[in-house]
Amino acid sequence: MTKFVLTGAAGALGSVLRGPLSQMCDELLSTDIVDEISDLAPNERFVQADVSQRDQIGPLLEGADMVIHFASIADEAPFEELLGPNFIGAYNIWESAHEHGVRRIIYASSVHAVGMHNVNDGIDLDAPHRPDTYYGLAKCFTEDLARMHWEKRGIECVAIRIFSCSPEPGNARALGSWLSYGDLIQLVQRGIEAPTVGYTAIFGISGNTRGAVNNAKASYLGYVPQDNAEYMAAELLAKAGKLDPQDPQHMKLGGPFAIVPLGESGVAMIKRLSEGNA
Ligand SMILES: Cc1cn([C@H]2C[C@H](O)[C@@H](COP(=O)(O)OP(=O)(O)O[C@H]3O[C@H](C)C(=O)[C@H](O)[C@H]3O)O2)c(=O)[nH]c1=O
């Protein structure tokens, strides 16, 4: 009897994962801060919980084999706002996993943990953390927390550094950074099914012709991307017009998050840029 716990189940990506995850286990416990979610799979149960409250999230992990941890503020925000969900929430997940003997955690990390590296550095998985925001810093914290729990307590983790995950590539940057929903599902499935992973970080990116990072050091997971943003190249490049190659938002892996002031919404910045008034 296998039990998985999915946090952030009501979110954009949690919603994509619920169906496939329900097929990979006997019991899926989906949790989120929202009141309810619809269309539960036959073996899925929903429990509302706040990850930043250990007494709420902790008991849900009892009897779980794996946790798929996707709950967080998915944007840059003031540190004080991120502290509960993104930092303490992660601490609560790993402490509770230890308490309940959870074997492995699949974690939604982000490109923003390494967002200040240059695109043309072609980094691999040994590149040091270079967060572009407090949001990215929380991903760095959680990756280090996960590695420490592997090394000190034997809890395995696959940290997927998600780039731009959406149904279709949405802008010129996405020609390099797109992660299709199908490839996200594959990454999560490989993370769950690989026999041993220890602590593994992997870039969550499709097989884009213009992709600028190297996943070779995580090849033992067996992730073989099926999608490539290039089919949208002509349309997206025409829409973008002439790009300034010295603009940090085009030079840095973190894109617009590399230029957003600390504590201010990167998502709002992307919206302003796409409307051409930033
Ligand atoms: C602040 C907070 C949020 N949540 C829930 C609320 C949403 O249903 C969900 C986040 O979903 P959202 O649609 O905002 O973000 P995604 O695009 O799915 O982001 C995902 O990918 C990127 C890379 C990520 O950093 C997120 O951790 C991961 O969820 O977490 C909670 O359950 N508890 C909380 O305290």
Automatic annotation (TrEMBL):
Residues 5-164 form the NAD-dependent epimerase/dehydratase domain. Its EC number is 4.2.1.46. One of its GO terms (molecular function) is oxidoreductase activity. Signal peptide: none annotated. Transmembrane segments: none annotated. Belongs to the NAD(P)-dependent epimerase/dehydratase family. This is dTDP-glucose 4,6-dehydratase. It comes from Flavimaricola marinus. The gene is rmlB.
